[in-house]
Q: What sequence folds into this?
C-alpha cells in the first residue's frame, strides 16, 4: 500500500494529519505542493474521484481573489484553476495506490476508513 499526502508544511490541517499518521505508524510520502505542484492529469484524476467542490480551499486568499463567476464554473474550469494555482486546493489530499481517497482532515475515523486501515 502506498500513501501520498499532498499539502504544504505550514498548513495547520496538514500538520495535524501528518502527526496523526506518524503517531499511528503509518508510512506515507509527503508532497509539498508549493515545491512540486500536481500536474493537470493528477488533478483531473482527483476531481474524478472526489469532485471539484470538495477540492476547493474556500478559506484561502487565492479562492477569495477569484471573481463571482467561480460560482458557475464547471469541473474543467476548476481543474484549470487548480492546475494554475495549487493554493486553491483544499489540504491535505490523501492518495492511496494512485487514487485520491480523501481531502481534508477532520475525523480520524473517516481517514482510517478511507485509507483502509
A:
Amino acid at each position: 500500500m502506498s500513501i501520498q499526502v499532498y499539502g504544504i508544511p505550514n498548513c495547520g490541517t496538514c500538520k495535524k494529519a501528518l502527526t496523526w499518521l506518524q503517531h499511528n505508524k503509518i508510512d506515507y510520502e509527503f508532497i509539498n505542493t508549493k515545491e512540486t505542484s500536481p500536474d493537470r492529469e493528477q488533478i483531473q484524476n482527483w476531481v474524478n474521484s472526489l469532485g471539484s467542490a470538495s477540492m476547493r480551499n474556500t478559506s484561502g486568499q487565492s479562492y477569495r481573489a477569484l471573481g463571482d463567476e467561480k460560482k458557475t464554473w464547471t469541473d474543467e474550469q476548476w481543474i484549470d484553476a487548480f492546475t494554475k494555482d495549487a493554493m486553491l486546493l483544499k489540504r491535505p489530499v490523501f492518495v492511496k495506490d494512485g487514487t485520491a481517497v480523501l481531502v481534508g482532515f477532520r475525523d480520524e475515523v473517516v481517514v482510517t476508513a478511507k485509507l483502509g486501515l
Notes: The chain has a mean pLDDT of 93. The two ends are 10 Å apart (CA to CA).
